[in-house]
Amino acid sequence: MKTFLVVAFGLACNVACAADGLSPKTFASSFGFSVDLDTGWVLLTPDRVTDSAAALTAATLGVPDMSQPELNEIVERIKTGQVEFYFDSVLSVPDFTNNVSVQLRDGTQDYGPASESEISALCASMPKELEALWGTPVDVRGCKVVSSNGKAGLAYTYVIAANNMFVMQYELPFGASQTALVVGGGRLDNDVMTRVVTAVHAIAKSVMAQTK
Question: Residue 70: which domain range?
């Protein structure tokens, strides 16, 4: 069974593109921003999934091969208009489809007013909270505040060894009154990590540009 990243925890492309031999491509998000990624990524937004379920297959959508029930679940989430997915068609394998999701939720979480000690305490609490979420030990590899246009978000990376996967997540103020969760996941492989993390950084940078 393939592993897909579920957005559930709410708290340098030039190099990658050259390595893959792929040209950069501009993707237009359904949330109003654009981002340059290499052509090995495939973006699914609500306007890409308007056909009937029978017509929406991995082949017709151009995404990495996956079971129809898994794809149907993803499509239903995208149709809500609150989430979109970027799929990696280059380094995904049959048992893991590398992906990045962008999900919006109402309310703005600005970490700017938090003190250094408060952020340290928040980051220190993550392993326990993430372990409860995933049901297995989690190794948090990085956790920091990121700022844009006078507002601050949170970025963190963690590894789930039992699932042979890593996750990188940004929680960012978006627009005037929302929070964007940018979450990338892939199997534990150096090339995959470079590719996915590069994409996550690029998408997060574009999201932060929307902050008002």
Answer: 13-208
